[in-house]
């Protein structure tokens, strides 16, 4: 695909589609609750539509009238195995959370996904779930999908210190803990997105969080709710970057989810000297409006506990750093190597192909700025976030075309990305 290049003056207001993490969870919580769950602003992108299909296959009645989605809960015990494998496509969140949901179901399931999913590590979820009494194994004794999972209706609780900072692992264990008998204690390596904890409370469950320590006693029965999904800050991040970098821009993004566990990019942009303003803050819904203006950026150091708060935004933060004055160092981000692709390698290879000066490290990147970007051929590596970041990079190129291969990957989280961006030209 030929990307839009040589852009000036982005102006306008837009809203981004619903949050991916909350959309997945809204289907899952709706399914395992008693009663009806109504979901507004559900993300209609490949990953979340895939989750919806899987729960239909598990026997959960789900209606989509094009506006709202209605899930009729069957409870954990009401899930039934389909004849065929459950295919999560490209979605790590789906496969890992699903393992926790199914861990207490006394049936055998096969969970599989695309080429990328078949390379992503699953021991992080399988080992603690097996300790609780489930039986999960990967392909040919490995930790990779297809996964065979046999659940256990008498799961034990677990006391577990997470070896990685991962909301997916934490959430899988919380879904299993809700079905076990007794108190589970989960201690995080670093605080990660807390949508699962928030939704356990919203759906009438009990959970105690004290810093990095989470306590939950099972079994618990949840009750269906109305979920209003805010816009996804991880999608807004591409417009934040575009507005900061393109001269003479003022862009407003409305209804963006601003959970503290997700808003690290706002802190980083401000620390780099970027002009980003929050208004219309809705504390109950944890959302607000962002207004971003073109800014002169400076390089900074990014590492430690902020990393999980911006993990999916690092590709676009790396792009910002290529245009900032001085050096930016990103560390403690080794988890990037096990995302849809190795994002440290992909960002380094593709932005350097356009003229950036990035050195990959074991746990991040060192980026020298500012560098002018030039025309070239790049690839998304089949990773939606790399594809969208490269389109924002191309907006800065003025000496010729930028061609992107595997551009269709953006439909994983944001099918209308290119059209929405065009409304700002
Ligand atoms: O729980 C979630 O919804 C997610 C958690 C993160 O993954 P990890 O838990 O693997 O860090 C994130 O990268 C992913 O996009 C969504
Ligand atoms: C890492 C991501 O998603 P997942 O792990 O669900 O594939 C992402 O959306 O950036």
Automatic annotation (TrEMBL):
Role: Catalyzes the transfer of the enolpyruvyl moiety of phosphoenolpyruvate (PEP) to the 5-hydroxyl of shikimate-3-phosphate (S3P) to produce enolpyruvyl shikimate-3-phosphate and inorganic phosphate.
Subcellular location field: Cytoplasm
Repeat as UniProt keyword: no
Active site, renumbered: 312
Lineage: Bacteria, Bacillati, Bacillota, Bacilli, Lactobacillales
Main location: cytoplasm
Binding site for 3-phosphoshikimate: 20-21, 25, 166, 168, 312, 339
Pfam families hit by this protein: EPSP_synthase (PF00275)
CC terms in the record's Gene Ontology section: cytoplasm
Name of the featured protein: 3-phosphoshikimate 1-carboxyvinyltransferase
GO molecular function annotations of the record: 3-phosphoshikimate 1-carboxyvinyltransferase activity
Swiss-Prot/TrEMBL catalytic activity: 3-phosphoshikimate + phosphoenolpyruvate = 5-O-(1-carboxyvinyl)-3-phosphoshikimate + phosphate
Annotated GO biological process: amino acid biosynthetic process; aromatic amino acid family biosynthetic process; chorismate biosynthetic process
Coiled coil regions in record: none
Family recorded in the similarity comment: Belongs to the EPSP synthase family.
Domain Enolpyruvate transferase residues, every copy: 8-421
Pathway as given in its UniProt record: Metabolic intermediate biosynthesis; chorismate biosynthesis; chorismate from D-erythrose 4-phosphate and phosphoenolpyruvate: step 6/7
UniProt EC number: 2.5.1.19
Gene3D superfamilies recorded: Enolpyruvate transferase domain (3.65.10.10)
Keywords carried by this UniProt record: Amino-acid biosynthesis, Aromatic amino acid biosynthesis, Cytoplasm, Transferase
Subunit organization: Monomer.
UniProt: phosphoenolpyruvate binding residues: 20, 92, 120, 168, 343, 385
């Amino acid at each position: 695909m030929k990307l839009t290049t040589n852009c000036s003056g982005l102006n306008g207001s837009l809203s981004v589609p619903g949050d991916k993490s909350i959309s997945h969870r809204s289907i899952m919580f709706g399914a395992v609750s008693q009663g009806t769950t109504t979901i507004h602003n559900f993300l209609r992108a490949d990953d979340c539509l895939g989750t919806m299909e899987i729960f239909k296959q598990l026997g959960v009645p789900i209606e989509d009238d094009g506006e709202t989605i209605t899930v009729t809960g069957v409870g954990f015990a009401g899930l039934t195995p389909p004849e065929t494998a459950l295919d999560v496509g490209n979605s790590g969140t789906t496969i890992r959370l699903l393992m926790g949901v199914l861990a207490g179901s006394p049936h055998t399931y096969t969970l599989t996904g695309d080429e990328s999913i078949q390379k992503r590590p699953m021991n992080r979820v399988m080992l603690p779930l097996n300790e609780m009494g489930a039986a999960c194994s990967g392909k040919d004794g490995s930790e990779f999908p297809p996964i065979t999972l046999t659940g256990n209706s008498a799961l034990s609780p677990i006391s577990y210190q997470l070896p990685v900072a991962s909301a997916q692992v934490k959430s899988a264990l919380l879904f299993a803990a809700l079905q076990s008998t007794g108190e589970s204690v989960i201690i995080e390596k670093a605080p990660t997105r807390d949508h699962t904890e928030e939704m356990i409370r919203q759906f009438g469950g009990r959970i105690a969080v004290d810093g990095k320590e989470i306590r939950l006693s099972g079994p618990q029965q949840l009750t269906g709710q109305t979920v209003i999904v805010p816009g996804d800050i991880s999608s807004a991040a591409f417009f934040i970057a575009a507005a900061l970098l393109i001269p003479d821009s003022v862009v407003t993004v409305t209804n963006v989810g601003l959970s503290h566990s997700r808003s690290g990019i706002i802190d980083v942009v401000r620390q780099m000297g970027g002009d980003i303003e929050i208004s219309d803050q809705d504390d109950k819904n944890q959302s607000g409006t962002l207004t971003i203006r073109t800014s002169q950026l400076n390089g900074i150091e990014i590492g430690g506990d902020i990393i999980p708060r911006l993990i999916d935004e690092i590709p676009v933060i790396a792009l910002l750093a290529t245009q900032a004055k001085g050096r930016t160092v990103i560390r403690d981000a080794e988890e990037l190597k096990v995302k849809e692709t190795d994002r440290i390698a992909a960002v380094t290879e593709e932005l350097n192909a356009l003229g950036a000066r990035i050195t990959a490290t074991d746990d991040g990147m060192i980026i020298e700025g500012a560098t002018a970007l030039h025309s070239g051929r790049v690839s998304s590596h089949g990773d939606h976030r790399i594809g969208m970041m490269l389109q924002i990079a191309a907006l800065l190129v003025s000496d010729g075309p930028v061609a992107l291969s595997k551009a269709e990957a953006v439909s994983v989280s944001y099918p209308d990305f290119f059209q929405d961006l065009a409304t700002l030209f």
